[in-house]
User: Fold these one by one.
Assistant:
Number 1:
Amino acid sequence: NAGVTQTPKFRILKIGQSMTLQCTQDMNHNYMYWYRQDPGMGLKLIYYSVGAGITDKGEVPNGYNVSRSTTEDFPLRLELAAPSQTSVYFCASTGAGGQGKLNEQFFGPGTRLTVL
Amino acid sequence: QQQVKQSPQSLIVQKGGISIINCAYENTAFDYFPWYQQFPGKGPALLIAIRPDVSEKKEGRFTISFNKSAKQFSLHIMDSQPGDSATYFCAASIKGGSEKLVFGKGTKLTVNP
């Protein structure tokens, strides 16, 4: 199993541009999450999904959108990039009673985004 | 509102020493307390976790101590090794709450050889 994969690894955007961060998991997990990590600030939840077709806002959703059309994929969309969205973005997934320890979130390798 | 407070922000320990990282929480509905380890350029990975029905959990050199009345929990790394140098995050979640985690701000641990 590849686990949680994210693309791209790095990206530089200009202010006002849009992009989609891709996230795919092959563990048949129901729950998926998007976090952003800023230096010294821990991980902040942006959006999450408890299953295909169901998404909800986390702590810092402004400026982002998500969709969950399949169990495997959970893309994160930035519509109008701003310098405040410069961060490292992590996708994670977990499955109640599935692989690994109950509640364990499996993280992808991250996408480092810079908005200039 | 920061629901999980973590300290210290950074920690330097000599090889063979004990590393201690502390966390405090406010929400009494939290019932799952994991610690994640993150190496530079990687995503976090679960290290060890505890539920509030026990006061301590040990896995190898890593121990979580949990004090429900004080709403505090801590990570102890015994016989710290240079390979333990990483950033450690405590977290908390509510059962049935979509398994969402609230993270502390992290502790950068450096173990000197």
Number 2:
Amino acid sequence: GQSLEQPSEVTAVEGAIVQINCTYQTSGFYGLSWYQQHDGGAPTFLSYNGLDGLEETGRFSSFLSRSDSYGYLLLQELQMKDSASYFCAVRDDYKLSFGAGTTVTVRA
Amino acid sequence: EAGVVQSPRYKIIEKKQPVAFWCNPISGHNTLYWYRQNLGQGPELLIRYENEEAVDDSQLPKDRFSAERLKGVDSTLKIQPAELGDSAVYLCASSPSGLVETQYFGPGTRLLVL
């Protein structure tokens, strides 16, 4: 089965940088996805790392180290609209298994 | 392009009553997923369809849950009878075949069982 760990909450001010770490234990690992979910909303895809290294998409970046079973999502230039829950999800050959999520609160 | 559509958005029922949720995936997406999300948790996969075939239903509580995707497009998830512990958000997602990592979620159905 899969096991994922990520911090439950992070608080930061507008304009700051936040890093959400995700460690995992799994069999059949293909890659790590990240999703954002606003309160009451649908999870939306942010990024995917199938290979080691950094993927950059605008203000968000994601990193994967397969040897360390570790990844992170980096949120830069935080904005109020970034207040949401962020989930890492392990991809095996046919499904995603999600972590419990990290609630990011952005303060003015 | 329309996103994943789900209905109803909210449902309140008494325990032991039946309930059904409907999902219409993004056009052309052959893979459809049903998830359950409890408060403060991530989505948990209940069942996955490839076209009309349920290829993974290992996490579906089959004594009370059932699902169908008869024509390989829209899908229905049913609970009968509902229990208090079934209160959760039921999410539907879709993806093109093979693109497991990039799933498009609907807004979900928030179920409250009293």
